[in-house]
C-alpha cells in the first residue's frame, strides 16, 4: 500500500483539518481534470464541479431535496456546512472533527460511521439547484430562463414522488457504501432546512466519460454511450456542456443536469429475437458496432440502404438519438443501471437512471427526447416515470468558496 493511501480512519487521527487537507492535496497530486489520483482522491475544487467529466465511477447515490425553510441565511449556512463536509468526505475523511467517535459518548456522533476505514474510492459530490429553489427564497430574478420543469413527453408516466426537487446532490464512487455514506450525512445535516424528495441508487455505469474507459452495457445487454462526449474533448465540452456568456454570472462554467428514471420492461425485451433487438437499437449486440460497420467505433452510415430499405432503420434508437438527427446537438451522458426490487406482479423494477449534462436543455435534450418518444422503436420497452432538471454551478475556487455562494450573495 502506498504510504500516501488515504482512509477515513487514518485521516481521523491527523492533527487538524487544514493540515490533513493540505497533505492530502499534495499527496494526491490534485489537478483540474477531475480524474482520480493514484489513491482514489478526486479534486473537489476547480474550474468545474467534479462528477461531470470525471471518469464515471461504478456506483451512484442521487438525491433530490426540497427546501423546508425560506430563510436565505439558513440555506446559505447549510450550503457552507455541506461544502465543508463534502470536501472532507471526498478526501477520505469523516464529515467533521470528532467524527463517528466523539469524546462525549453521550453526544450524537457528527459522522454516522459506516465509512470508517474505507478509502476515498474516487468519491465525487456534485451540487445543483432546481426551479423551486429560487421561488422559495424570493430570488426568482436570478433563475435562468432555461431552468424550468421539463415538458411532459409522449408516453411519460411520471410519478411526482420521483420528479422535481429544489436541490440535488449526485454522489458517485467506486464503493457503494462510500456514496451512500456521503448522501446520508449531508441529508442528516440538512434537517430543519431541507428534506428528501426522492433518491436513486445506481450501479454499473452506462456511459464512459473518458477515452480510457471501456463502453459499458445497459440492462438490455447492449453497449451504451459509444458516442458519448469525453473529458479529453475540451472544445466539444465547451460547445455542448459548459454554460457560457448566455447564462447568469453564477452559472457560467457550470451546466444543466437532466435526470430521468427510465424503467425498462426487461422481461418483454428478453423474449425478443436477437435480430429484432439489433434492428431496434441499430447496433450489433456483441461488438457494439453500428449495423453498417464491424467495430464499435465505426461511424454509422445513416444513408446506407439495403434490399429492405435503410440498413439502420428509420425508427432505430441510434439514428433518432444521433447528432445528425438533432441538428448537431450532443450531450455528456452519465447514467446508471438500477434494480429496485420487483413490482409485486413478477416483474423487476429495473432500468436506466439517465443523467446528462448539457449547456442548454431546451435546444439539446428536449427536441431529442420528443423525437425519441414519438418515433423510437425502443420506446415500446421503456417507461419514463421520473424527471427533473437542475442547474449545476461551476466549480469552487480555493479558500472559503462554497456551494451557492455566488448565487446567494
From TrEMBL:
<keyword id="KW-0349">Heme</keyword>
<comment type="similarity">
    <text>Belongs to the DyP-type peroxidase family.</text>
</comment>
<protein>
    <recommendedName>
        <fullName>Deferrochelatase</fullName>
        <ecNumber>1.11.1.-</ecNumber>
    </recommendedName>
</protein>
<feature type="domain" description="Dyp-type peroxidase C-terminal">
    <location>
        <begin position="215"/>
        <end position="395"/>
    </location>
</feature>
<comment type="function">
    <text>Involved in the recovery of exogenous heme iron. Extracts iron from heme while preserving the protoporphyrin ring intact.</text>
</comment>
<dbReference type="InterPro" id="IPR011008">
    <property type="entry name" value="Dimeric_a/b-barrel"/>
</dbReference>
<keyword id="KW-0732">Signal</keyword>
<keyword id="KW-0479">Metal-binding</keyword>
<dbReference type="InterPro" id="IPR006311">
    <property type="entry name" value="TAT_signal"/>
</dbReference>
<dbReference type="InterPro" id="IPR048327">
    <property type="entry name" value="Dyp_perox_N"/>
</dbReference>
<dbReference type="InterPro" id="IPR006314">
    <property type="entry name" value="Dyp_peroxidase"/>
</dbReference>
<keyword id="KW-0456">Lyase</keyword>
<dbReference type="InterPro" id="IPR006313">
    <property type="entry name" value="EfeB/EfeN"/>
</dbReference>
<dbReference type="Pfam" id="PF20628">
    <property type="entry name" value="Dyp_perox_C"/>
</dbReference>
<dbReference type="Pfam" id="PF04261">
    <property type="entry name" value="Dyp_perox_N"/>
</dbReference>
<keyword id="KW-0560">Oxidoreductase</keyword>
<keyword id="KW-0575">Peroxidase</keyword>
<feature type="domain" description="Dyp-type peroxidase N-terminal">
    <location>
        <begin position="49"/>
        <end position="203"/>
    </location>
</feature>
<feature type="signal peptide">
    <location>
        <begin position="1"/>
        <end position="22"/>
    </location>
</feature>
<keyword id="KW-0408">Iron</keyword>
<dbReference type="InterPro" id="IPR048328">
    <property type="entry name" value="Dyp_perox_C"/>
</dbReference>
Amino acid at each position: 500500500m502506498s504510504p500516501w493511501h488515504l482512509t477515513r480512519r487514518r485521516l481521523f487521527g491527523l492533527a487538524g483539518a487544514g493540515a490533513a487537507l493540505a497533505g492530502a492535496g499534495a499527496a494526491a497530486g490534485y489537478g483540474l481534470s477531475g480524474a482520480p489520483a493514484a489513491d482514489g482522491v478526486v479534486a473537489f475544487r476547480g474550474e468545474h464541479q467534479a462528477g461531470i467529466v470525471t471518469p464515471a465511477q461504478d456506483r451512484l447515490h442521487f438525491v433530490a431535496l426540497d427546501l423546508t425553510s425560506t430563510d436565505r441565511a439558513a440555506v446559505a449556512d447549510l450550503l457552507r456546512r455541506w461544502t465543508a463536509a463534502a470536501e472532507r468526505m471526498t478526501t477520505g475523511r469523516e464529515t467533521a472533527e470528532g467524527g463517528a467517535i466523539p469524546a462525549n459518548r453521550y453526544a450524537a456522533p457528527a459522522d454516522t460511521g459506516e465509512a470508517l476505514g474505507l478509502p476515498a474510492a474516487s468519491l465525487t459530490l456534485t451540487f445543483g439547484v432546481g426551479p423551486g429553489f429560487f421561488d422559495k427564497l424570493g430570488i426568482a430574478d436570478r433563475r435562468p430562463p432555461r431552468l424550468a420543469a421539463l415538458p411532459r413527453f409522449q408516453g411519460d408516466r411520471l410519478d411526482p414522488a420521483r420528479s422535481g426537487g429544489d436541490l440535488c446532490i449526485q454522489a458517485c464512487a467506486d464503493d457503494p457504501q462510500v456514496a451512500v455514506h456521503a448522501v446520508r450525512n449531508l441529508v442528516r445535516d440538512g434537517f430543519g432546512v431541507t428534506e428528501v424528495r426522492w433518491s436513486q441508487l445506481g450501479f454499473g455505469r452506462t456511459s464512459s466519460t473518458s477515452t480510457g474507459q471501456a463502453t459499458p452495457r445497459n440492462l438490455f445487454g447492449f453497449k451504451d454511450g459509444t458516442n458519448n462526449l469525453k473529458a479529453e474533448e475540451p472544445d466539444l465540452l465547451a460547445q455542448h456542456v459548459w454554460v457560457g456568456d448566455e447564462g447568469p454570472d453564477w452559472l457560467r462554467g457550470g451546466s444543466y443536469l437532466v435526470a430521468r428514471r427510465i424503467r425498462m420492461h426487461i422481461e418483454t425485451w428478453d423474449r425478443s429475437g436477437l435480430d429484432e433487438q439489433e434492428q431496434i437499437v441499430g447496433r450489433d449486440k456483441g461488438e457494439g458496432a453500428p449495423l453498417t460497420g464491424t467495430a464499435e467505433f465505426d461511424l454509422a452510415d445513416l444513408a446506407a440502404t439495403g434490399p429492405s430499405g435503410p440498413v439502420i432503420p428509420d425508427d432505430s434508437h441510434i439514428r433518432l438519438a444521433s447528432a445528425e438527427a438533432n441538428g448537431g446537438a450532443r450531450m455528456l451522458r452519465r447514467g446508471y443501471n438500477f434494480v429496485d426490487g420487483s413490482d409485486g406482479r413478477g416483474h423487476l423494477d429495473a432500468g436506466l437512471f439517465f443523467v446528462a449534462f448539457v449547456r442548454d436543455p431546451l435546444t439539446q435534450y428536449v427536441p431529442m427526447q420528443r423525437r425519441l418518444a414519438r418515433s423510437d422503436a425502443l420506446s415500446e420497452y421503456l417507461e419514463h416515470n421520473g424527471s427533473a432538471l437542475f442547474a449545476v454551478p461551476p466549480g469552487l475556487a480555493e479558500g472559503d468558496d462554497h456551494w451557492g455562494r455566488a448565487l446567494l450573495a
